[in-house]
Structures are given as structure tokens and as C-alpha cells.
Amino acid sequence: MFHSTSRARRTVLTAAAAAVVAIGLAACSSGGSGAGSSAKEFTFLAINENSTIPTVLTSLSENECAAENKALPLKINKQAQASLDQQLQLLGGQNALPSAFVSPNSPDLLKELDSAGKVTDFTGTDVEKSIVPVALSGVHTLYDDKTLVLPTELNIEGIWYNKALLEKAGVSEPTSWESLKDSFATLDSAGVQPISAAGKGGDGWGVTRWVGAYIYRTLGPDALKKISDGSAKLTDPEYADAANVVAELGSSGYFGPSPSSIDYATALNQFLTGQAAYYYMGSWAVSAFNDPEQNKIGADNIGFLPFPAVSGGKGSADQTPANVGTDIAFSKSAYDGDEKVKSWASCIAANYGAAALREGQITGFAVNGDVEVPPLTQLVQTEIADSGETVQWFEALFGPAATTASQTNGGPLGSGQLSGSDFMNTVQSSITN
Fold first, then answer.
1. What are the Cα distances from residue 100, in Å, to 4, 235, 342, 426, 427?
2. Domain positions in the chain
3. Buried b vs exposed e over 58-70: b needs ≥16 C-beta within 10 Å?
4. Of 146, 226, 299, 314, which residue is 20 to 30 A from 219 by alpha carbon distance?
């Protein structure tokens, strides 16, 4: 769904795999990890697709956490992301989880591991105090108010815009949904494509993000939780209205002539080469914005707009769409059974934020010390600092079938070929089934 290291892009656990989890963990629901008090190393299970976490942990082991590393040396093993969940299921069932590990692709699997007493809950600890509020809110949303993971990433989402294109068309930064929608018409009349958005195949989340954001602004921050718990349906008029609004934008051509043929890389390139005025995207894209090889419009020409409030809506613009991307968890038996593992966790919590920022990665940890960063990265940090409550992306609480149904139909919705009501019917049917 986003970039290669974010939570939303990661493989979702299938129903069959979930059944294996339940059977395996039920068979071995107590006991400890192989990394208990006799451990000779601080073992960490990484994924091949994410190089940042191993890089940062290695840097910490050589610098801020050198003492912890001397007492319990860091040992990093790697696993293909696609098979991570199956590996964690196996290790959990064998009481052999490493000291710490990249958390499962499916939040439901980590909940299963927690229920079986396999993972550490940092709620109420000093480690938790190192997590910034917006990240903690996102973690609690995913894990039922528990702090089961440490946020080695923090991504916020919103609408990035080309200052020069808006100025040339006589458009001021919109302050409401109504003024944003008016600006689409103004830009279109001036010959400027209003929005760049991917809609090809599974990249259709580039369009469905608009649906989810509009739902949150009109119905409030708990709107999609009501869908997941069955107290509301996407086919209810107030939900279908959000998709119909986005379909109308598509019918007007505001997503371009053929969003169904646009993938993620093309949509990013459209925005960074000045072919569209607005681009709804997460802060992971800032690395591309800061890269002059990719960014032809200039970093100083890019502004950021939180998805604006909708008149009469129950949500507000300060409820930030956010996710903690690829995060890490700790084995409960390793953490509880070895003070050296606890020391590692404390050192990571205190220092990971600054160490990762030196690598260009914004995390959910408070930054201990000063790190010089580019202006757009600083802008994201400021937005994060000003955020209190977070909301999730449209498909965050959906199962695999509904996620696929949503994202593969995002393109037709964004082109106006599929009505909002039909889109919601399709997705809701996948949730029901």
C-alpha cells in the first residue's frame, strides 16, 4: 500500500495462516523464548526488505548502546518479509522467539502471540514514555490500547501541493474541504491537472485514501472502527456518500484522464515533475521530495496540507492519518528473564529516534539530541509534534479480501467509471464474506 518498509504494504496474514497460528500457539501457550537468562546474544530478526532497522541498530551497538552491546552482543538475522509471519508462528510455538523482531505483517498475529504470553507489553513503562503521542495513539489503535510494538517508523499522511502551480492559477492554500474542492475546478480550468493519484491494480489505494480521509472528517475518528466491529456498514448512506464524493472528483477528471493506468512510481513522478498540483501521500515520500534527481520542481516549492475539515463534519483537521510502518516487538520471556535485554530495550527507546533521523528516517520515538535535517523533513516533524490523535488509512482494519477489493477498484472509482455506491457495495461484500 505504501513504500516497501511500511506497515500497509506488508503482506497480510491469510485466514489459513491465522488458523495455523491459533493451533500452534494453543499447543504451546506458556513458557519462554530461547533468548532467556542464559542468552549470549541480543538476537534480532529483521526482514530483507528493510535495511534501515539493521543499520540503525548496528550504529547504536557501536555508539549509544555500546555498553549494552558489550554486555549482550547484537546478533541480526534476516527473514524474507513474505515468510515472516510463518517464521514467527513457528518460533512462537517452539518458545524460541528472538530477543526482538520485526513485528508480524498482520497485527492479528501479534495479538495472538500476546494472548499466548509471547510478547512484551510496554504499557506504563519508561520505554513507552519515549514514544511520541501521535505514534502511541497509532500503536494503541492497532493493538487495543496496548503498547506491543516500538515504532521504528512514523508516517503521517496528507495533501502535498505545488506552490507555484497554485499561485499561477490564483489559488490560496485551502482551509476547508469546500475551498479545496473549489480549487480543483479553478486549476482544471487553468489547464492544470488537480490531483496526481495512482489507481492501477493494487496501487488503487492512491484513490481510496481520499475516501477514508473524507469519512474521518465527516463521521469522526471512530468511523472505520464501526465497520470492523460490525456496528456500521460501508453501504450505509453516510459512508457511501464519501465514495460518491470521490467518484464525482473522478468524473470531473480531477485525478487525470486515466488513473487506472497510473502506478505508484508514475503518480510520484507526475507530482515531482510539475504535472499535477496536489498529491495525497504519506511522509515516506519525503525521501523522494528531498532527492534532486527525482524532484524537478524543487523541495522549496512543496507545501503540506492536512486533509481539511468538512463543513458540518464530526472530524477535524488535527486528527492525523498516521501509521507506525515497520515496527519491532520484544519476546516477553527474554525481556522479563534477562536484565541485559531490558537494558537494550531502554537504550533503543532513548536513542533510536536520533540515530534513525541521521539515516533520514522519522520514527515514533522522541529525538534525543540535535540532528540537522532538510526543511521538508523538519516540516513533517513539526506536523507530528502538533498532532495528538491519529486515524488510520481506509483499509487498515479490513481483512485481506476487503483490502484487495478496495485497492483494485480504486482506479475505476477515481476515473468515475465506478460509482461510489457500487464501490462500497463491492468492498462491504468482501467484508461480510
1. 21, 42, 11, 39, 36
2. 42-149+325-363, 158-320+398-432
3. ebbbeebbeebbe
4. 146
C-alpha to C-alpha distance for 127 and 38, rounded to whole angstroms: 23
Question: CB burial class (10 A; 0-12, 13-18, 19+) of residue 236?
Answer: middle
Q: Is there a shared CATH topology between the 42-149+325-363 domain and the 158-320+398-432 domain? A: yes
Please report, in tens digits, the pLDDT of each residue of the chain (433 residues total): 333 334 443 333 333 344 444 434 444 443 344 444 457 999 999 999 888 899 999 999 999 999 999 999 999 999 988 789 999 999 999 999 999 999 988 788 899 999 999 999 999 999 999 999 888 988 998 899 999 999 999 989 999 999 999 999 999 999 999 999 999 999 999 999 999 999 998 899 999 999 999 999 999 999 999 999 999 999 999 999 999 999 999 999 999 999 999 999 999 999 999 999 999 999 988 989 999 999 999 999 999 999 999 999 999 998 989 888 889 999 999 999 999 999 999 999 999 999 999 887 899 999 987 888 899 999 998 888 787 688 888 998 887 788 889 999 999 999 999 999 999 999 999 996 5
Task: Kindly give, in sequence order, each residue whose CB lies less than 8 Å from that of residue 382, ignoring residues fewer than 6 positions away.
Answer: none
Q: What is the DSSP string of 259-286?
A: GGG--HHHHHHHHHTTSEEEEEEEGGGH
CATH of 42-149+325-363, one of 3.90.1180.10, 3.40.190.10, 3.40.50.620, 1.20.1250.20: 3.40.190.10
Helix (H), strand (E) at residue 52: helix 52-62
Which pTM does this prediction carry?
Answer: 0.77
Which CATH architecture does the domain made up of 158-320+398-432 adopt?
3-Layer(aba) Sandwich (3.40)
Question: What are the helix (H) ranges across 273-367?
Answer: 286-289, 332-337, 339-358
Contacts of 287 (CB under 8 A, 6+ apart): 360
Under 8 Å between Cβ of 111 and 145: no
Place of cell 520542481: 297
Return left, alpha or beta for 305; rule: phi > 0 is left, psi -120 to 50 is alpha, else beta. beta
| Rg of the chain on CA atoms, in Å | 22
Residue carrying C-alpha cell 495455523: 20
Q: Provide the 8-state DSSP code for 419.
A: -
φ/ψ bin of 308: left (φ > 0), alpha (ψ from -120 to 50), beta (otherwise): beta
- Using DSSP, state whether 384 is helix, strand or coil: helix
